[in-house]
Write a structure and sequence with these properties.
This protein is α/β, with parallel strands linked by helices. It has 15 helices and nine strands. The strands form three sheets. A five-stranded parallel sheet has the order 2-5-8-1-9.
């Protein structure tokens, strides 16, 4: 993929996203443009599977920048997110020094707490200079961590620096492009949000979802792609625990294409619901009679639109 310059307008931001195969609306392009221009992190919130993480990947590809991903989880701490010391290598160095008759404790301590024994994790890596330009730092699913880790992030996001007691403060010469995502399984603290620009990434409307499907899967037939999008749009209006995201739409269309389907029928839909719905209660709720009802509705709507 051709490396593109940092956009200087909203239209150029839309072009950049399109070049990476990402179909965005103007509101998202606007907040992304402002994030790049102002050097502020972009906090993206929304349901799982709507394309939040993909934005960081597209930025990395189209701008030719390194992508550094911090995948968040419960219990994530500084050792896993920022740095830790290679204790095994330090012990070996100490033993070798003692075996060689080195008794200068201060010098040994200085040696073992040098950068060559430092294991750099994603946040520290993102602060390092890079010949290709400041990297894209993706902090993915921040809502899975706890408030203590959020509090630690405040220093990183406010000043783009971290403090290592044995070495001092490491500050980025050129701040990384920061994308933070959350599936909103819990509320993220206001103090962190204040340091970011915010955008809610919702489910796309039918027109944009069809555009996404055709962009990402150009080999899917016109009739099948229209029916797939219409069915998913209708399914999101049903009383299901977890509505399918765009990622599930793409998976389902791919699965149907692998089955050589050219149009939707009740049996095929029922047999492949596991690519759209990920909870047994939801699959049981959308039984064959419900599938027939939804199919009849969307086919009637599509005929009326012709």
């Amino acid at each position: 993929m051709t490396k593109l310059p940092v956009p200087t307008s909203i239209d150029e931001t839309l072009t950049l996203l399109t070049a990476g195969g990402y179909v965005a609306d103007r509101a998202l392009a606007t907040v992304l443009f402002l994030s790049l221009r102002m050097g502020k992190p972009l906090f993206l919130e929304g349901e799982a599977g709507v394309g939040k993480t993909e934005i960081a990947k597209v930025l990395s590809q189209t701008l030719g920048r390194r992508l550094i991903r911090l995948q968040c989880y419960e219990g994530l701490d500084v050792a896993a997110a920022v740095y830790e010391w290679n204790y095994a290598a330090q012990m070996i160095a100490i033993r070798l020094g003692e075996a060689g008759g080195d008794t200068d404790r201060a010098r040994l301590e200085s040696d073992v707490f040098s950068e060559r024994f430092l294991i750099k994790r994603p946040l520290l890596q993102a602060l390092e200079p890079d010949p290709a330009g400041a990297p894209v730092l993706l902090i993915d699913e921040l809502d899975r961590t706890d408030e203590a880790f959020e509090a630690f992030l405040l220093e990183v996001l406010a000043d783009f620096q971290v403090t290592i007691p044995e070495l001092g403060t490491v500050k980025a010469a050129h701040p990384p492009i920061v994308i933070i995502t959350s599936n909103r399984t819990r509320e993220v603290h206001d103090a962190l949000k204040r340091r970011c620009l915010y955008h809610w990434v919702g489910y796309p409307n039918a027109e944009r979802e069809l555009n996404i499907l055709r962009t990402r899967l150009p080999g899917i037939g016109k009739k099948l792609s229209e029916q797939v999008v219409a069915f998913v749009q209708a399914l999101r209006k049903e009383d299901v625990f977890k509505a399918p995201g765009v990622a599930e739409t793409l998976d389902w269309a791919t699965a149907l294409n692998e089955l050589d389907a050219i149009a939707l029928d009740p049996a095929t839909v029922s047999d492949t619901l596991g690519t759209l719905l990920k909870y047994q209660d939801d699959i049981a709720r959308v039984d064959q009679s419900k599938v027939r009802e939804l199919l009849d509705g969307i086919k009637s709507d599509l005929r009326a639109a012709e």
